[in-house]
Specification:
It contains eight helices and nine strands. The chain is an alpha/beta fold and 268 residues long.
């Protein structure tokens, strides 16, 4: 599996830590040349150094993945650094909690700008390049279980994630003729730098997840890397849920009032 990506070039947004970093690390370990994006320059540079220190090929490009001009810059930098783009993973996303009746236009627009606009135009820019290259490619969107099951105070976020899954399905029509696959992964509760700051998070989600624990970032990264790999070349328009079975039963994390704030630490 070491060279299963044979010097393919991957662009991953929102990858300074958490799931995005795990994706970049795994891709690099398997031979991909990785362009790692994060909004925070220090996070992007430190993440790239970690991958380089393990022998991987990785360049950091800091910037706002919800900004269309930056996406153009990001893809241009990928071509400048490595000469092609074979894989584009729209991992960047934000969660802004709030009750529907009080949700502000500013928060709504911000969620849609990053989660939808950024993902849509990364896919568009990457697909144009892949079409010109005439060797196919893979695009992947990061969805969420909140696109499948309702969560309190996450109407806008859940809507954005459900939309990404429909986008993956819709793009099959236009991109399959060029050998480009488009899929999504929908993580459930996942342990990362943010969620581990909540002392109740792990115990809450361990209690209500059929597999007895929330995901680790590697669990999600393994699913993502499979879907952009040659082994998944005939899979397109699909969403793979990685949630330890939570969506099958969907118990609410709010059932126990003592854990009322636990889900707010999770981006999925």
């Amino acid at each position: 599996m070491k060279d299963s990506f044979g010097n393919k070039v991957a662009v991953v947004t929102g990858a300074g830590q958490g799931i995005g970093f795990s994706i970049c690390k795994l891709l690099a370990e398997r031979g991909a040349r990785v362009v790692l994006n994060d909004k925070e320059q220090s996070l992007a540079e430190e993440a790239a150094r970690k991958i380089q220190g393990s022998g991987g090929m990785c360049v950091p490009v800091a910037g706002d993945a919800g900004d269309v001009d930056f996406i153009d810059y990001l893809t241009t930098q990928a071509i400048r650094a490595f000469g092609s783009i074979d894989i584009a993973i729209a991992n960047a996303g934000i969660t802004l909690f709030g009750p529907f009746l009080d949700y502000t236009e500013a928060d709504f627009q911000n969620v849609m700008r990053v989660n939808l606009q950024g993902s849509f135009f990364l896919a568009q820019h990457a697909a144009r390049i892949m079409k010109e290259q005439k060797k196919g490619g893979s695009i992947l969107f990061m969805s969420s279980v909140t696109g499948h099951q309702a969560h309190r105070d996450l109407a806008a976020y859940g809507m954005s994630k459900a939309a990404l899954e429909m986008l993956a399905k819709t793009l099959v029509i236009e991109l399959a003729p060029f050998g480009i696959t488009v899929n999504a992964v929908a993580p459930g509760a996942t342990l990362n730098e943010r969620t581990m700051n909540d002392p109740e998070y792990k115990s809450t989600w361990s209690r209500i997840t059929p597999m007895g624990r929330p995901a680790e970032t590697a669990d999600v990264a393994n699913a993502v890397v499979f879907l952009v790999s040659p082994e998944a070349r005939h899979i397109t328009g699909q969403t793979l849920i990685v949630d330890g079975g939570w969506c099958s039963v969907s118990p609410s994390p709010y059932d126990d009032s003592s854990h009322n704030e636990s889900p707010r630490s999770s981006e999925h």
